[in-house]
Amino acid sequence: MMNNNKILQNIISGPFWAIKCLFATILFMLLFTCAPSVFIKKEVRLPPAYALKAHQPFADTSQLTIPEHIGERSHGAKLTPRLVGSIFLWIAQKSSCHPYFPATIFGLIYLLSGVLVAYYITGDRIVGLFTGLLFSGLYASSACFSINWMPKPFDGIAIGLLGATLIAIQRLWLLPFMAFLSCWTDERSIVALCFIMLVILVWPSMAIGAKIQRGVLLAISVIAYGITRMIIANVLGWGSPDTSMIGINLILASSFFQLAAWSAFEGGWIILIYSIRMLVERKLYSRLLLTIANIALGLISSLLVLDLSRSTMFMFPLILAFIAILKDNDLKVQVLRGITGTSAAITLLAPNFEIISGIAVKWLPSYLVFLLLN
Asked: What global pTM score does this model have?
């Protein structure tokens, strides 16, 4: 036990503690989650829409809806406005990098956001480390790494920019810029910005005026995205966005509700349940309803597009909101450490069954196991 405490203290001590925590989250991510194709599969066949975006980031890919694989047929219709991911994919192609390299780099920003923002909220570095480990457990379903060898090189960039938006809550000048870029990476980021707004609303010790100021900046970012998207779409002659996949089969989608709920938080459900219990005990019903409404928004938006493992990943800011609720209600730091640590352990050790449930595919082992078997 003393050795474990010493290791923990070494990680969280010193001016570069956050970097050491980041390395710890990367280590556990490699040991306990899916193997990153950026390391173990050098040649990746991009679907037609991604391949076109790799050469022409501003291209209209809406007509590329008939590739060989049925799972790739909707890519063309939805990739056209995702400019930030397209530009980074183009940079990777021009520099002869793996197409997943940008997603991997931004995935590290996502991991770092768990460490830093939890620390900003609680003032405790151990809680920051445990939250980062929780995020690394969710990393397998984030599509920073390909799942079943099907490339999704934009999603990792999107959650990385959302992580940067969370970090920028403490840096006001950067907040609207990161939020704006997040929207241009993936339209699901607009829903995620609602969750970030909840983080701001429940942020302990932040003045009401500061919360309103940040909320206004997020709203301006979304409005700016809408205006610039209309302008660019008209200038470049983009086709109308394809909404045919939204709500295509609500009955089928409802059967995935438990799967969506699990993949959104995994071990983070412990933090959620504890925060809801505390809100009920303190009779903070308005905050309770707001929290439940945000969870429902995330789950419903995921089910509408039947893209569970990736859409639910955009709900990760809510975990930080739950931590803020616990901190704001004066939960003892030792208890908070125990809750976040247990949540991280469950998430890391979970088999990530949302990736393989109902799909006849071979699960990707951890990177270490992959090396031992090969």
From this structure: 0.87
